[in-house]
């Protein structure tokens, strides 16, 4: 009887440890869990922004900017002067998180999606794992909306010389190479913003960032100029949808 109880106790402990390990992996590793525990404001902001997107759904024919805090900080609708453009970036988001909220983020029938993702994943995972997560995200977008035009934007460099940033620029280059190859295989545009914002030292140019990761207005001007022809071409493709949005 005692042996039976001991075995049951050991089994329960093993199951508990396995569940704990699964939960840690699910939330991005120990550093990610620590960040979530020590930064409750990030979680609150994430949930609030996600709820806001659910309350104000994306209309059919939308052009969606999808990503994390770098996307979220952009005034895309204002810059392009169209209500057809939706900003669906959430600070702190990663590939798995974006994939889980695609239905809400993209709406029923988006015309185009401009995707930037992966920098937050690289804070917790090596480049090969991030590449697989990114591919899964893109695969899900294409499965949900096969006729939607997709634009894959590179991950931006970081500046580790002026600030502490837990991401290595060599890993960013490695993932970007994979994103470029993925874009070629899928025959979709790859927008290389990384090259435009990298200094001779391989770091994000200091004048383009406020903390080594997040961007200054000058950086957003570079980003905007790089994608302007693509976004404006999308706005011109469906003038009837534009009339609907501007009513």
Biggest sheet details: 5 strands, parallel
CATH fold-level name: Rossmann fold
Number of helices, where a helix is a run of at least 4 consecutive DSSP H or I residues: 12
- Percent helix among the residues? 55-70%
Return the structural class.
alpha/beta
- What is the overall shape? globular
Widest sheet: strand ordering: 2-1-3-4-5
pLDDT < 50 stretches: 23-31, 239-247
CATH class: Alpha Beta
CATH architecture: 3-Layer(aba) Sandwich
Please provide the count of β strands. Answer: 5
What is the residue-mean pLDDT, rounded to a whole number?
87
Number of domains: 1
The CATH superfamily name is SGNH hydrolase
- Measured between the Cα atoms of the first and last residue, the distance is 76 Å
Q: What percent strand?
A: 5-15%
- Give the SSE string: HHHEHHEHHEHEHEHHH
Rg measurement, Å: 20 Å
Q: What would you note in describing this structure?
A:
The chain is of the alpha/beta class and about 250 residues long. It has a single domain, classed as Rossmann fold (3-Layer(aba) Sandwich), CATH 3.40.50. The chain is built from 12 helices and 5 strands. A 5-stranded parallel β-sheet has the order 2-1-3-4-5. Helix 9 links the parallel strand 4 and strand 5. Helix 8 packs parallel to helix 9. The longest helix has 25 residues. The C terminus is likely disordered.
